Amino acid sequence: xxxxxxxxxxxxxxxxxxxxxxxxxxxxxxxxxxxxxxxxxxxxxxxxxxxxxxxxxxxxxxxxxxxxxxxxxxxxxxxxxxxxxxxxxxxxxxxxxxxxxxxxxxxxxxxxxxxxxxxxxxxxxxxxxxxxxxxxxxxxxxxxxxxxxxxxxxxxxxxxxxxxxxxxxxxxxxxxxxxxxxxxxxxxxxxxxxxxxxxxxxxxxxxxxxxxxxxxxxxxxxxxxxxxxxxxxxxxxxxxxxxxxxxxxxxxxxxxxxxxxxxxxxxxxxxxxxxxxxxxxxxxxxxxxxxxxxxxxxxxxxxxxxxxxxxxxxxxxxxxxxxxxxxxxxxxxxxxxxxxxxxxxxxxxxxxxxxxxxxxxxxxxxxxxxxxxxxxxxxxxxxxxxxxxxxxxxxxxxxxxxxxxxxxxxxxxxxxxxxxx
Length: 421
Description:
The chain has 421 residues and is of the alpha/beta class. The chain is 52% helix and 12% strand. It has two domains: 10-287, Spore Coat Polysaccharide Biosynthesis Protein SpsA, Chain A; 302-420, no CATH class. It has helices spanning 10-19, 34-51, 70-76, 80-86, 107-120, 138-151, 168-182, 198-206, 219-229, 254-270, 272-275, 302-315, 317-323, 326-335, 347-363, 368-373, 376-389, 395-411, 413-420, and strands at residues 24-30, 57-63, 94-100, 125-128, 155-161, 184-185, 194-197, 234-241, 282-283, 286-287. The strands form two sheets. An eight-stranded mixed β-sheet has the order 3-2-1-4-7-5-8-10. It has a two-stranded parallel sheet with strand order 6-9.
């Protein structure tokens, strides 16, 4: 086996040899998703048959060692009947490959296997979707693959409608920071579903990240950032609602916050020569027709979030002093005395907190995990303020407030650039 070659099981290599090449590939990474993956596989097969008749295609399930029968569900999935239901005469046969992935446990290792199979099969257009989706439809695959097949795009990021309190890490940190750094309006940079060209899959595969933390977490933001920063042709596809198990943003999201933010900050170091030259932000093409959809509610506990923030003000002053500018720290500390009904964490202050944290992460002011765990109470304080501010707001007004925060990240970018060195 060549150095750096992704290990694949002998039966998988035999399937690849038998297939030779395909035009389209759908990857479904999984881990103990027996209850939902059958629906995802059938939706993918139906989408490929309905929207890409006559094109050779393969569905790849990259499984992380499930013990609940996930792989068996995929192996038994009947791929012809959904095509027959949706299309009078499907004229292409969708193949299946079920493979265990090797390497560091995590979604990134599963994606690496998908990229390797895409390269082996010389796939022109690929998509990956989560295996626990309840809202996936055949149309998703038209939107994720179509712009690549028909218009030569390299990367299709998902656009969802989500409940106003869902996705707060994306809304308050990842989206506005990525937009300000790299100058592209990609609303869901860690969405979980993506389309990508075969040439971008090969580019991903060649990057030296597969024995790093990217392979355990951070793969979604890495894919989006790499596509933008390395100059590939990027667009979005409107997928409607993403229905999954909603989580209270005040619940224990510390591990996720640390993982995602560390990935974003690591990428800032990788691509510092690119983002320092970027000014402003511009839209990317959007495929699909945005429309209102029914969304599952997300319950929040504002009082609990403010309580954790106040505890942070009392207990984390010394840690925050290592990360935050003196003026920023003073303003944050002053918030600790505000009453709950008047609590407000301003946009500009939050942007300064994130930029100060990026600078502290770069200079290794503290061990990085300790530093980022101390960000959690600040994030919860900001989230509590956002929830209170938008309690009676509709979806359009909430989106406007998120966009206003993103614009503030752009306006304050000079603050970051001046201090980066």
